[in-house]
Amino acid sequence: MREWVGRYAAGRAVAVGLSGGADSLALTAAAVVEAEGVDALVVDHGLQGGSAEVAEGAAAAALALGCRSARVLRVEVGRAGGPEAAARRARYEALDRARDGLPVLLGHTLDDQAETVLLGLSRGSGGRSIRGMAEFDEPWGRPLLGVRRAVTRQLCADAGLTPWEDPHNLAPEFTRVRLRTEVLPLLEEVLHGGVAPALARTAAQLREDGDVLDALAESLLTASRNGRGLEIETLATAPAAIRRRVIRAWLHEGGAKSLTDSNLRAVDALVTRWRGQGGVALGGSPSGTRLVAAREHGTLILGWDRVDTDGGRHHQ
Predict the structure, then answer these.
(1) How many CB atoms lie within 10 A of CB 286?
(2) Exposed e or buried b for every residue in 86-98, given b needs 16+ CB within 10 A?
(3) 177: which residues sit within 8 A by CB, 6+ positions away?
(4) Parallel/antiparallel/unpaired status of strands 229-231 and 299-307
(5) Helix segments in 225-301, DSSP class H
């Protein structure tokens, strides 16, 4: 915690996302000692009976530890993307609204990082998905990424703190729970230990490499801009890893939301393997329209196709 505060928040107050579990409780205890001031933000998802009491208990624990304030944020969790994703989205949105310009510290540990890398591997979407969580991705700070979950539990025991045990952390219907309770222990047994730290080291190495590639891609994106499009001649000679990063960033700017690897490669083919093929339809479009990337007069362009109920199409 001391190293993180010195690097990212020296002389500043911070907010802490506190659930009442061992990881976030240990995080809060350490933050109170090292940061200039700490505001605890407790999200009540309302998904379990007694959640309001748990949230109030966590807020009381934060004040007892020395936080200068503690607020309970009650949210409504939607259904889009499944329960895990919906709860996560509601939680981050609530924390972002309540942080009042402060960085928000989250209690993700080395074990969480290992689980994140395994989830990324299962998606097969390249280095970006397996470089894990960042130590600081403004406004989100994760000082405990080098700390094992067992250490946070030991801190709570040593400090006389009683963490809340979330029953969802043992519910096998959640993918991350099965990774934690079944997959990682099996890997540790088969590979004779050290799997979680190895996965976390891999994430850190890939993040360092990715940051360099992202910086190169940002320069190329600037150089290849032609109005709202991209000059194909400038892109075509760039290494594939950098060119695809440029295309991904440009597509996100243009409104593409849920890009797949096949989407990205199809747009890349408009640059490197063009044989007169038409545009590439992308996901994440408003109802009744779809976002299309196309090649026109040596430039990569984006436009919206409106699909009428009679099957007609109109390009904008």
Answers:
(1) 10
(2) bbeebbeebbeeb
(3) 168, 169, 170, 171
(4) antiparallel
(5) 232-236, 240-254, 261-272
Q: How buried is residue 264: exposed, middle or buried, by Cβ count under 10 Å (0-12/13-18/19+)?
A: buried
CA 92 to chain centre: 10
Strand partners for 304: 291
DSSP state of 179: I
Mean pLDDT of the chain: 91
Q: Contact, 79 vs 50, CB < 8 A?
A: no
Residue 244 vs residues 24, 72, 309: alpha-carbon distances, Å:
37, 42, 34
Residue 287: CB partners within 8 Å, gap ≥ 6?
Answer: none
Angle, helices 195-224/110-123, rounded to nearest 10 degrees: 60
Are 197 and 111 in contact by the 8 Å Cβ rule? The answer is no
Taking the alpha carbons of 103, 106, 109, 114 in that order, is the dihedral positive or negative?
negative
Tell me the average pLDDT across 10-17: 97
pTM of the model: 0.84
| Parallel, antiparallel or unpaired: strands 140-141 and 104-105 | parallel
Q: Which two tokens stand for residue 107?
A: 């209690």
Q: What is the pLDDT of residue 288?
A: 64
Share in percent of the chain as helix, strand, coil (round to 5)? 50, 15, 35
Task: Please tell me the distance from the alpha carbon of residue 141 to that of residue 134, in angstroms, as a whole number.
Answer: 8
**Residue among 136, 134, 127, 111 nearest 199 (CA):** 111
Place of tokens 């339809």: 281
Q: Where are the alpha helices (DSSP H) in 35-183?
A: 51-65, 83-98, 110-123, 149-158, 175-178
First to last CA, the chain: 51
> Is residue 41 within 8 Å of 69, Cβ to Cβ?
no
Q: What is the pLDDT of residues 196-249, one digit of tens each?
A: 999 999 999 999 999 999 999 999 999 999 999 999 999 999 999 999 999 999
pLDDT band, residue 125 (cuts 50/70/90): low
In Å, how far are 29, 40, 214, 233, 244 from 300, measured between CA atoms? 52, 47, 20, 10, 13
